[in-house]
Design a protein that fits this description.
The chain is an all-alpha fold. 68% of the residues lie in helices and 0% in strands. Residues 60-156 form the Bcl-2 Bcl-2 homology region 1-3 domain.
Length: 201
Amino acid sequence: MACEGNGMSDARIGEALIKEVIQEELKDVPSEEIPPLTPLAVELKTEQERKIVTQLGIMVRIVGDKVKDDQEFQDAIDGIASCSGSKWESFKAVADKVFEHGITWENIAVLFYVAGKLALKLVEAHLPQSVRDILSWTVEFFRNNLLGWIRDHGGWINSFSDLAVASVQSVSSMSSSNYGLVLIFSAGLLIGSFITWRFSR
């Protein structure tokens, strides 16, 4: 059952998550260098939605960190930031590449992560107005190409288990000194998933 049945909106959660990921990437950039993003993405209506977006944001960052070492993705992000032609067409090409083997929760996380990294690159390239474009393009792509799939697969509530597996796989490749962090993260994830599951019943 998608989130709409329990007072939450999969559309609202997705749009807020995109904004959250972009804002997280820009957290170390002075605020005067970033245009306001609020009018472009809806605001969450409940504390439950806020908790879900926060938890998903953590998982998106962990899953997306796998892309850091993918030179093809990094080149594509750099290409969008530096292209003189249509940045929308370049963004769409990267989005299509993310989903070339189909839509999965992990691929959705990667797209949101790429949007955040791209927003940071554009600010670093002194094109802060383009951050709003990235947010609106990602939201548009989400609405047109991903929202239906998310609803058909039970809503964001059902993303937790798949994203948890992808997150653990991502961090399990770290050195053994980080296994404690993996365990702490996994325990928090399980508790958060249980709380979310209880809310959804």
